[in-house]
């Protein structure tokens, strides 16, 4: 460890937490100092010297100035409480959960959490969990390759077999179709707003919906069996119309019904004065956790240069430097 190393505390020892530990070990300039878990008896196989702690208060006491990588799967109020726990003890925190656009996903737009973070000189960063990163940060970063684009379509299939059963059911997989179609736990509207912010255009109109995918037979997975007629996947689509007649269409297609012929590649197509077509494939399509953990760690490093408060994934450099109205863009 050197004086410039960033100290990291991993919160949660699920699959993503374990993956984050491995990513920390493999990243120069990162010092993994502790893990926080409610089940210390399961904290085995950790790197030498990594402390096992029961809560974030202990982490703040033993490692002030550390950054928390929170790998806890949570939504809405549960998510906000997880972030508040870190902020109130003065620790910076990067969440993997669905807070990649807090203004639309926290009850008050994130104002209370932002004020609390400023009060305790802490930073809350939303990294953009998969599929967040590939549905917003990545497209926003490459759209300069198609100047004058008028429409952009992004499609991200996901292999949900690798997800824990609790995460699948939280998103409606394994439930009856009406459960999927009556709620949108992870709104893709957040990603549309991030892309709009990156290109400096206001969202004029936006719509979003989910359609369940079912099978006529039971689908047997290693950790559960989904009965026939229940949701084995869904198609979630968000269409945003931006000022100037531009359109962003984002589609997320998780499924547990995956075969060797299933195309799980990310697809992006922009059309207009200049065209752009991009297809990405690789191991991330079966297992997104390494990419998510790496994104969280990169966000944690960038967070040190940001002022205290609540920040979106656009804050480290994607946000258009001037707001559509001509003023300076807000950091949040």
From TrEMBL:
Residues 312-332 are annotated as: Disordered. It comes from the Bacteria. Gene3D superfamilies: NAD(P)-binding Rossmann-like Domain. This is Dihydrodipicolinate reductase. It comes from Nocardioides antri.
